[in-house]
Amino acid sequence: MTSVLEHQLIGRLAAGLPRSPAQLNRLHESDAELVRLPGSDLVLALTTDALAEELATGLYADPWLIGWMLVTVNASDLAAVGADPLGLLICETLPPGADGDWIAALQRGIADASVAYGLPVLGGDTNAGAAPHLAATAVGLVPGRPLTRCGARPGDLLFASGPLGGGGAFALAQLVAPYGPHAVPFRPVARLREGVLLREVASACMDTSDGAIATMDELMTRNGVGLRIEVPVERWTDPAALAAARAAALPPWFLHAGPHGEFELLFTVPPDRIPALEAAAEAIGWHPLRLGTATTEPGLAVPGAAGDRRPDTTAIRNLFAECGGDVGRYVAALGNMLPET
Amino acid sequence: MTSVLEHQLIGRLAAGLPRSPAQLNRLHESDAELVRLPGSDLVLALTTDALAEELATGLYADPWLIGWMLVTVNASDLAAVGADPLGLLICETLPPGADGDWIAALQRGIADASVAYGLPVLGGDTNAGAAPHLAATAVGLVPGRPLTRCGARPGDLLFASGPLGGGGAFALAQLVAPYGPHAVPFRPVARLREGVLLREVASACMDTSDGAIATMDELMTRNGVGLRIEVPVERWTDPAALAAARAAALPPWFLHAGPHGEFELLFTVPPDRIPALEAAAEAIGWHPLRLGTATTEPGLAVPGAAGDRRPDTTAIRNLFAECGGDVGRYVAALGNMLPET
Known about the structure:
Chain A is built from eleven helices and twelve strands. By secondary structure, chain A is α+β, with helices and mostly antiparallel strands.
């Protein structure tokens, strides 16, 4: 079995670090860390995420978007465990001569997201450094059983919280210049409200921060199941993203190959809980999209005209890192690994 | 009144950011953020701190020490609010080609501190970047009333949790080469056990991460009191640090002028709680050092042969930033601002 490169690194870093007996999840089992509070039924959800590659590569260049995303990437991890938001810590390293307007726009992005998610800024740390570095920590609370990446069983239905592919299309437009003539609007909204509803309904959940294929790969690995995509990719791909892929003569699946996603949730629901999902979704005017079904047969299956295509999701997931930032090579190699439509 | 430069920056960054109604502290009122957990008597203590300047200037160069300090600076903030430790999140940005031995030593430093403080690593984030950047978040719990920087009254006695000046001496040896011929051992230990005891005893508390004078300045401002140092500086200064200052022909107060401290706690105790402090300290074999007394007259007073000296603690605190990294100018200017002995 191919192993996920990023997991190898994290495994090496985590080896030898003491873990907590109060922690409910092990490595990679949930989007946020889950800790039972002593003498209480509450579970604390904690997550930390920095914007590093996103700034260094120029993927996020607009300072307002950088601020918005700094909050969103962390809020999305809280959403994926079904946590009620409690607050944020912001850790900013800024160049001593950073432009005042740039900083003001960054802070507005942070403030706008903080308000949008009901995730107040509790505090933080400021430092001076040659290059800007932005990290944040989000904290939430789960009353009762949190949602994790684990719990899907064969027969469970696979859903997305909304159209996918916007993160891939944005990266295409920002980084893959020859393929990306179209500006693609990108302002993802972490699915906190939906995550809270899914706590009672979903069997497993994960956000698409690394793209849909990486998320499917992880859900399959964590649960020992396969996933069969039964709804055509065009039906659950963002229309603007689809148009961008078509303009660049790339297959729609390219948009889902990552490593930059759109912060939707991918989740599985047992068949007997579908009515509960529909009722909960209707109550907030939400339209989850069905993609397929979890299967006993391992791996991703994508039906096509010439029968099932079975892309190697772990190899696809590792490809960007293996290409070492060579975007042209990445795009060329990916073409051979993806379903055509 | 002189204003603290770092506070001006933080104030600008924080303006417009939404705050939480569940938060017990305002800006600068405590070393960690304090949030009452809904439906519970527990207060969550949260803090985030990065090592940025410390790495960029070469102050911390040994990778084990970098790992140890990454945990210690955050644990020390939990100590200053009297929190029981719950766990850590580590956010590492490492150069893609970082040396394996360097990373292994860094991780050992993190693991050793994590074990020493009973502060398990709950999770984290890893990124690739041109320069290493290390941030961490520490989480703790306070059952009941947390300790803050606020609550000192005139007549309260001022203590340090241990000898001060080790952080200043280490910075002297690392950064001010002409003045620092002596290697100074530096492995501060966050005062978590002591902080928990102080919860019931101290009226105000803050760690000396920015040096003793900056800490005194902050405690005076927060409480509208002055501080009169009644015990000679040699009695509460670390002996090795004192020797280093003498070898460099610098006054002992130089060691306390910051901006790099030793992560002890400075705290005030009302006279009627001194027996409780003594009993608690004796129970764990701890020897807090008395420095002086809080006064109604504002500012720091240091008795000397020619009467009281009244150094401008805020100006001293701002000096390093104002010298823009010019260490020679900083050392020369500081000489005129400090008490002689």
